[in-house]
User: Fold this.
Amino acid sequence: MNGGDELYFDYAATTPVDPAVAARMATCLADRTLQGNASSIGHRAGRRARALVEEARLQIGAAIAADARGIVFTSGATEADNLAVIGAARFNAHRGRHLVSAKTEHKAVLDALAVLTREGFEVTLLKPALDGLVDPVQVAQALRPDTVLVSLMHVNNEIGVVQDIAAVGRICRERNVLLHVDAAQSVGKLPVDVRAMSADLVSFSAHKAYGPKGVGLLWVRPEPRLGVEPLLRGGGQENGLRSGTLATHQIVGMAEAFIVARRELERDVAAARDLAQRLLAGLAALGGVELNGHPDQRVPGIVNVTVHGVEGESLRLALDGIALSSGSACASSSPEASYVLRGLGRTDALAESSLRFSLGRYTTAAEVDAALAIAARGIERLRALAPA
Assistant:
């Protein structure tokens, strides 16, 4: 994918919509017989829309190996994270008011936890190892008799490391503690099996997997039924957990995106691995470039590197022509260095001199080579002008 005059290396922020997804959504939008409100099942138009939503629910359930009855459609993973963390904590506050998470979680989780601390909850934030991984033993040691919820990300959106969620899930089950997993970056990058995670709540996003923006879901364990206090109130849609008119065309688009992601997983992962190796080899040849995160326990499409010997803002300016990120898109308005990298022990200066290249389904070898050429010219010029 070439973003106009830019080389696009920001797939972790958002992915382009797959043509099959766009076509499916266009059909849904153009057909007047499918324009009813999915909650208005008293007439044919509403029932047709409802049928599309329920078909999509089943398709998504199959794609993530989850009981489709637990799927609650939301506006995206941010809302799903908030509903999971705040909703589950509030509903289960009578059991305890202690929560466990990690310093490198997505802001949607960290800010939700901050809300709960103002309500009297206590939060333990685990510090990952230098490679970005949280040892399940850390989680076990952090649990207390009053712990009600653990929230951990499956694939980190900045450094791409993959946490051992299944091991954490087993620990939480043994201790009768709820587990929420932010899996927004997982679909299309590795096999997703909600049952194998032993999770109680799992958040997903469509636009991270070649689907439309503005739709996501929270999977809530249906049996035994898990209590979650809703954040939005009104019509009582989605079993009372998320009120609001369902965006049929977006839900249909999300289902198609997840179907394609599952079908193309092996090809997409292999292509991303080859391209990431090509990118890393080219960056390593410049010298003074260090990969952030575990070298093996990671998804290949997210390559976060620290470039030694250059200043952060100058580095980003020197790479004009490449659409990439110095951190998470959710925190791009913040002037601070990446809190994820600082959470791993990076100094502010090193965190500011870091770049996240994220690539995906439409990235080509020619684009990787072109990006490397821009990076080489920019980094070599900066080091010559003002060696740090």
